[in-house]
Each structure stands twice: as structure tokens, then as C-alpha cells.
Amino acid sequence: MTAKLFKSGQARSLLSAVSRSVELIKADKAKDLIYTVTPFAGGLYATSELDGGTGLTVNPSANLSSLSIPGVRAPYSEADAMLSWFAGTIDEVTAKDASGTKVQLPNKIIRNITVSNASAAEVVAKPKNDSVAFDVYGIRGKKAGTTSVLVSFYPSHSTGLRTATLDNVQVKKDYPVTASLSAGENGKGKTVWLSLLNGLSINSGDETVNGVVRKKQTFGDITLKDLYGAIEFKNYSVYRTMDLFGTQLFVSNVKWTDPANPGTLRIDVDKTLGTAVYVYQPGNAGSRLISFTANVSSGGRRNPSMFIWIRIINRLNRVSPSPCAARGAGRLFVIHLLRWLLKSLPYRFTGLFCRP
User: How far apart are CA 43 and CA 168, in angstroms?
Assistant: First the structure.
């Protein structure tokens, strides 16, 4: 099998090609394969320890219809649904031949999942990591103990229904503290348009409109894992579980053009809707934002993303609606920039602020 990439246009030319060798096996050979299900290396969390979702911010009007899956108990509430984020994922069966070579199986071959100890664990519809909508089936821990998991699946007509087992799955009481925290743009200096800052999602990315790149990116994606590692919480689910993991978002090192008249800058999180946005208002007498540092921390693990802004003076704004693209006033811009840098030392400069 070969994939080729060509340059478009009248003189079409081959840019690159990638070839892969694929060996097909007969359906009746599927009966000789060895089937396994990925184990839960860290065990499962006993979600009953959270007393019905303590630490989760719920939305009573949430639509949970996508989690009402045939053969699986529907969630009692949104808090109950969010507890299934902690479920171990059952999304695929792995097959290998006698030599240990992995064999690709068709999608969606799982037919049924059962547990041996219903007091310790249950089968649930596991939500996605960035919404409360169905993603995959999972095994959610309930009370501390052990259980086995039996997965029934249908790899081919020749094999019929087959099974794979996970034995001695541990369900633990250990509180799901933060094990890792990351921000996609951590430690990078960023450039953001001041006119877009108020109400801007902290996870926004830059966008191009009419050939102009609108600078909007700050944190990028924020992800968090607990000690069980059953899910990588991302953006939405990070905000919904902030009280549970002790996650905080805040700004520091805020600098204004007139320090005596600071304006407003903060990060507002709606834990019910799973959103986080900047709130910005200039200060009195036209005092505007120059720079700030945005931070995220969780469970004692701080992971800041640092941003520096430089305000372009008003006379440059009149020359061009986009100061960073101003050409005729380039020399004047450099002079003012150098003056500002000399006054601001010893601060570290890692980016520019462009006011469109």
C-alpha cells in the first residue's frame, strides 16, 4: 500500500511517497489469535469515597442523553456522570498471532462487558475528557476491593463470540490527587491583541482572517492526570473538577502604562459550564495593560505560562490599524521600543503585544 503527495498546479510533481506492507489473514485464522484487553495499571478509584460527587461542580440542567446507552445503567445525575471520568477505559481488544505480531481487528467488536464483583465496580458509559458526552465503555470503581472483568467480542463470523478477561482488578480508596499538569504553551512568550483579550478563552488559538493572523493564543490546551491515570482531563473537565483537585488559574506580574491607575485583569472560571476566560478593563486616564504572567496550578504542582506584552504608542496606531505591520513608522517604533526596554530592565522579555 502506497500513499503519494503531489504538488498541485499545471506542472504536477511528486513531493513524497510512503509505502507500507500490509498482510491480510483469512477470517478462519482469527480463531488462532491471542486476545487481550489492556489492564488498568494504576487500578481504579473507589468513587463512592466522593460521597455522590463531592468536589465536582454540577449543572442541574445538563443533557445526559448521550450517556443513556443500551445495556448500561443511565447516570442518576450530572455528578454521577462526571464520576465516570474516573472509569478505566474498555475501548478495544488487542489480538496477536503466535509470533507476537499484532493483528488489526475491525472496529466496534465488543458486544458485552460484565464484572464479577458488582459491589466493587460497575460498567458505565465513560464521558469524553472535554465534555459530558459518550466516548467509550468503562469500568468504574465503587467500593474498595477486587473484581474481574469479562469482555465478550465478535472478531469474525468464523470465530463467533470470543472473550477476554482482566483478573484481580484493584479498586482503591486513595484520593485521586494531581499526578501531572501541563499547558500546551507553557513557558513561552506570547503575542496577543489587546482588543481581543476581554472575554477571550484561555484555550483559544490564533486564527487567520482575511490574511491577517489574529493573535489569541495563550495557554493552549491544559491537561491534568491523577494518580490512577484512567483519563487525561482536558480544558472543560479540568475546570469542572477544579475543587476536587485544588486547581487554580490566576494572573501575576501585571504591568500597566500608568501604575497609579491600574485597570482590571483576571481569569474567570465557570465551573458549571466548563469555561475559563480573561476579564480585562483599562484603568482610569487611559491606563492600559503592558504585560502579565498567566498561571495554572493544581495539587501543589504549579505550571505557569509566561506572557509579555508591549503597548504600541498611539501615533503608530494612526499610521496603520495593525502596529506590528506598520512599515512607514518602523524606525519610530524601534526608537520607542528601545526606550521602553531600557526603562524596564532587568525584566525578561519573551514576547510582544500588538494592538490592532
Answer: 10
Grid coordinates representing 92 are 478495544
Tell me, what's the pLDDT at 250?
Answer: 92
Which candidate, 292, 43, 249, places its Cα nearest to that of 146? Answer: 43
Task: Give 110's strand partners.
Answer: 153
Does position 311 have pLDDT exceeding 90, yes or no?
no
Q: What is the pTM of this model?
A: 0.78
173-209 exposure pattern, b = at least 16 Cβ within 10 A, e = fewer: eeebebeebbbebeebbbbbbbebbeebebbbeeeee
Are 120 and 145 contacting, i.e. CB atoms less than 8 angstroms apart?
yes
- Residue 141: name the closest of 52, 54, 43, 75 by CA: 43
Beta bridge partners of 127: 134
Question: With bands split at pLDDT 50, 70 and 90, how would you rate the model's confidence at 268?
Answer: very high
Whether the Cβ atoms of residue 233 and residue 129 lie closer than 8 Å to each other: yes
* Inter-residue contact 308 to 350 (CB < 8 Å): yes
pLDDT higher than threshold 60 for residue 330: no
Residue tagged 500597566 (cell numbers): 256
Question: What's the first-to-final CA gap in the chain, in angstroms?
Answer: 49
Q: What is the pLDDT of residue 9?
A: 61
Phi/psi of residue 195, nearest 5 degrees: -65, -15
Helix (H, G, I), strand (E, B) or coil at 331: helix
pLDDT in tens, 71-120: 899 999 999 999 999 999 998 888 898 888 888 888 888 999 999 999 99
Q: What is the mean pLDDT of residues 41-67?
A: 90
Look at strands 222-226 and 178-183 and give their pairing: antiparallel
- Report which secondary-structure segment, H or E, holds 122: strand 121-127
Q: Which residue has the cell 456522570?
A: 81
Q: How far apart are CA 235 and CA 276, in angstroms?
A: 9
Q: Which residues contact 223 (CB under 8 A, 6 or more apart)?
A: 180, 181, 182, 232, 233, 234, 238
pLDDT band at 186 (very low <50, low <70, confident <90, very high): confident
Phi, psi of 81 (to 5 degrees): -65, -45
